[in-house]
Amino acid sequence: MQSVAKEFNVSDTAFLSPAISAAGTNGQDESNSTPRFNVRWFTPGAEVPLCGHATLATAHFLFSSDLAKHDTIEFVSKSGLLVARKIIRPTLKDETFTVELDFPVDPVVEFDASEVPSIPLTLNGVPIVNVMKTTACGDLIVELPSGKDVAKLQPNFEEIKECSGRGIIVTGPAPDGCGFDFYTRFFCPKVGINEDPVCGSIHCALVPYWSEKLKKKRLTSFMASQRSGILHLELDEKSQRVRISGEAVTVMVGTILV
After folding, report:
1. What span, in angstroms and rounded, lies between the C-alpha atoms of 245 and 231?
2. pTM of the full structure
3. What highest taxon heads this organism's lineage (predicted)?
4. Which range has the worst mean pLDDT, 22-36, 79-93, 122-136, 141-155?
5. Angle, alpha carbons 74-78-80 (nearest 5°)
6. Is the distance from CB of 182 to CB of 210 less than 8 angstroms?
7. 73, part of any domain
8. Are 86 and 45 in contact (CB under 8 A)?
């Protein structure tokens, strides 16, 4: 799987297989109509415990191909049981859908100053508002004064490699009137991804972080990479879950020979 992910050379590659249910069937327990699959994620350089956009793409493929004849799918992963739901959205032209993922909250904790070496080339003189750390992968969250600062950032990947944890999440409040709550970019050259174009899993930490700052439970994030992406987010404080929804498009279907 690692070799295949390296060959694809995209941010994350998801690998899917039917889960053996309690009833002994693949992907389907007769006592529970919800299909269940095993999922693992690999970057070009390493296996990761959680990936949002690859899971969304996997669910989109299952829903679109009718391999899952239900509106809910369960994924068994290294981060526990994850749920994807098909949300129907009628349009003027046809019936489209979004995928909603249900992920666990990734608590944000204080960091040790020694974990963040000086990164003057990356920040280009922009002041830092706050620095925290995620629990799951030890990613550093660096908050800048504005989303515009996030979008203009010119990262120095050699500097970022010297930081502890998997990578650096750079985020800031969105400009007034743009329709978003915050901007984000994610750099993780240590695992073969200089910049992840759209990353869902980091929002398991960013949603509670920005929810507390903005006093909102429903948020919209803009990933300000060159490709960019929009994530619709909701925090469920009681269950400590984050719901992430977005759209996907199937662009290729093929066969891999290994």
Report:
1. 6
2. 0.82
3. Eukaryota
4. 22-36
5. 45
6. yes
7. yes
8. no
